[in-house]
Write a structure and sequence with these properties.
The structure is a single chain. This protein is of the alpha/beta class and 690 residues long. 38% of the residues lie in helices and 14% in strands. Strands 10-9-11-12-14-13-19 form a seven-stranded mixed beta sheet, sandwiched between helices. A five-stranded parallel beta sheet has the order 1-2-3-7-6, sandwiched between helices. Helix 16 (411-423) packs parallel to helix 17. The longest helix has 23 residues, at 3-25. It is elongated. The N and C termini lie far apart (86 Å).
Length: 690
């Protein structure tokens, strides 16, 4: 091995080891915030990190501080995060030690990832999928600048994992898609035999190397990850294979864990293998390798002293660094959107009226025609079917199977892969087939998608659109009829639309595309074709191609003038509720007494329009299709009551579905459960006569 590689590897290892020792010596101070270190894992981490290039993407896990050093980060950089300082280069003091996010021109790119073990595998695989798409389409990654011929090598993705995390189901989804689509990704599995206090014998039927054999197309090797030279040379071959052959690989590295699981879970509490683990320490191994390659004991001592001096100096400096200020809490939850005003023609003269599902289809087609970065994937959206609601019909035929394609039945992958796709400059539009199927994707939506911008301090917003057909329609039964907005609105860091008509859906779809943040669009199946009686208003003249409708702007679609001697009412609603409200006010002959507000978006929420109306009318009914207990509607009603209390002539009321666990299949039972025009009429009369 070349001497400069060995020397650099040893310096990084000495630095990582010195950091661990310093943290232990200053345990009471540095353990204000939980941390883990790489002690025992250093050799494999450094061997990998030294070979990655600025165009590569890496997803280190929480024990990978030695890998970060080998990327060119300093102990000071890492210690700013250790101590949660304002200038922490990863998160501005928002997240744990060794939870990096980096977008430096001269280093591998590191999108945000959570602490949830194994969850990074899907976003990482999404990056590899995006790399492959970029190559197929002849696009450029806006985050990468190729400086010279060496750095023009094909980029790869690296996902680092602990062996215990490989038991997670989402790992299987990532491996499956990487193997199926032959993506350029390396899964580095560091196996120290422990999962906090549970060991491998208790928790794993096989190790990661053995497990990988079940995925055809995913090659794997197992190595001694405590041996620097063996690790470096093995990885050199693997990385060359991935760069040239563009296919996935798994490296299973056996390593000892020579420090605590984390600063809060001490190894002496439960470990019975500490003496054996010390015999596999990578530190004496690499020292002997230096001696075998012509270094002297004096050379080794010089490097050790240099590392310790640097670590101590950086620690002393980090202690004096500034803490975040209270106002720093409120930055980078979202990136500003360029779409702030309604623009374009909503109802062009001479244009045909189209059903709601076609308004969305035409919007996606226009976006895909204009932007090669736009692609669509999910279950059954490919050329054979074009979506179970025909919401993607003809798109695969027009744009090709690389841009519109089916995925496996993997909601977690569908949602979480958008993190990686966005990180390479793409704009994925993805679908879950029914709102009832969104639950497996919520882990990724909450843990990875929604928090990426905030926890990376604005470096890695996730620009994606998640389409979710929602609501009860045509006796869909308990697994195709649910409303889930109360769960979704409790995930901070995403925007949520719930349109009631085709023009709004098209305008919001366009706004969502140009928004650099994650957007969920809830699309009521019963409005797609306006086949439900009383929903003809969901059809629209198709807006022009340049029509955009900003988020956070409600529609006062039935406005009244306040009369002192007449009881008046505001109905606040969205989706199907808009049609129940409009029909009810019409059938009661009370259109001049009832204002109807279509929220259009549930986040951001147009509170100004709502509160202004309620203060004018003095009464308010919130209409939802969800069971109303503990719902978004109840929370909104509470907010209205709190802000408008002195203007109210009656309590703010809500109407929703019956509080039953699921919507039954039988049409009579379904009708009994969900709201309707008739039920809304009863509530209107009750509230007006209060």
């Amino acid at each position: 091995m070349k001497k400069h590689i060995l020397e650099k590897g040893f310096l990084n290892l000495c630095t990582a080891k010195a950091m661990t020792e310093l943290y232990e010596a200053n345990f009471k101070h540095v353990s204000k915030y939980v941390h883990a270190t790489s002690r025992g894992h250093e050799a494999i981490q450094i061997a990998l990190g030294m070979q990655l290039l600025p165009q590569d993407y890496a997803f280190p896990y929480y024990r990978d501080d030695a890998m970060l050093l080998s990327f060119g980060l300093t102990p000071y950089d890492l210690m700013l995060q250790l101590l949660a300082k304002k200038e922490d280069p990863f998160s501005g003091g928002r997240t744990y030690y060794s939870h990096p996010s980096l977008n430096d021109a001269d280093k591998p790119k590191i999108p945000h990832q959570s602490s949830a073990t194994g969850m990074q595998a899907i976003p990482a695989t999404g990056v590899a999928m995006g790399m492959k798409y970029i190559e197929q389409q002849g696009l450029q990654n806006p985050h990468v600048v190729h400086a010279d011929n060496e750095k023009a090598l094909n980029p790869i993705t690296v996902c680092s994992l602990g062996d215990a995390s490989v038991t997670e189901g989402e790992i299987a989804e990532a491996f499956q898609m990487a193997a199926l689509k032959q993506m350029p990704i390396l899964y580095l599995v560091q196996d120290n035999g422990w999962d906090i206090s549970a060991n491998a014998a208790e928790t794993r039927a096989q190790d990661a190397y053995e497990y990988s054999k079940g995925f055809k197309g995913l090659d794997a090797i197992t190595i001694d990850g405590a041996n620097f030279i063996e690790s470096y040379q093995a990885l050199e071959k693997v990385l060359e294979t991935i760069r040239t052959e563009r296919r996935p690989f798994l490296v299973h590295a056996k390593v000892p864990l020579l420090n605590h699981h984390t600063s809060g879970v001490r190894m002496e509490w439960y470990r019975d293998d500490l003496e054996e683990a010390k015999t596999r320490d990578p530190y004496p191994v690499i020292k002997q390798q230096l001696l075998d390659n012509g270094f002297t004991q004096k050379d080794i001592e010089r490097i050790e002293a240099e590392a310790k001096e640097k670590v101590q100096a950086d620690y002393d400096k980090a202690l004096l660094a500034e803490d975040p200020k209270p106002e720093d809490l409120f930055t980078n939850d979202f990136v500003p959107t360029p779409i702030t005003e309604e623009k374009g023609e909503r109802s062009p003269k001479g244009a045909d009226k189209v059903v709601m599902v076609d308004c969305a289809l035409f919007a996606v087609e226009e976006l895909m025609r204009k932007h090669k970065e736009c692609l669509l994937y999910g279950q059954d959206v490919g050329g054979r079917l074009g979506g179970v609601f025909r919401e993607a019909a003809t798109l695969a035929q027009k744009f090709g199977d690389d841009r519109v394609f089916n995925t496996a039945i993997q909601e977690a992958f569908i949602v979480g892969s958008t993190v990686g796709m966005s990180a390479v400059g793409l704009k994925p539009i993805v679908e879950v087939q029914f709102a009832d199927y969104i639950w497996p994707g919520l882990n990724q939506l909450f843990t990875e998608v929604s928090r990426s911008c905030y926890l990376s301090n604005g470096k890695w917003p996730v620009s994606m659109i998640l389409r979710v057909p929602i609501g009860a329609y045509g006796s869909g039964g308990p697994y195709h009829s649910s409303s889930v907005e109360s769960v979704i609105t409790n995930i901070r860091g995403i925007k949520i639309a719930y349109p009631s008509n085709g023009a709004d859906l098209k305008g919001l779809m366009k706004a969502a595309y140009y928004d650099p943040n994650p957007v969920v669009i809830l699309e009521h199946k019963g409005l797609y074709w306006s086949k439900v009686p009383g929903t003809q208003g969901a059809t629209s003249v198709e807006p022009s191609e340049d029509y955009v409708l900003p988020f956070g702007k409600a529609w006062l679609l039935q406005e009244i003038w306040k009369q002192d001697d007449v009881e008046t009412l505001t109905i606040v609603t969205y989706g199907m509720g808009v049609h129940w409200a409009m029909n009810a006010s019409k059938e009661l002959g009370l259109k001049d007494q009832i204002e109807v507000i279509d929220l259009r978006t549930l986040y951001p929420l147009d509170e100004d329009t709502v509160m202004k109306s309620v203060k004018k009318t003095g009464k308010c009914l919130v209409v939802t299709e969800e069971p109303s207990n503990n719902s978004f509607a109840k929370a909104l009603a509470g907010k209205i009551q709190e802000e408008c209390f002195r203007y109210l002539d009656a309590p703010v009321m809500t109407i929703g579905s019956e509080n039953i666990p699921a919507i039954p299949l039988n049409s009579i039972l379904e009708e009994t459960m969900i709201p309707s025009t008739e039920k809304v009429k009863v509530q209107i009369e009750k509230l007006l006569s209060y």
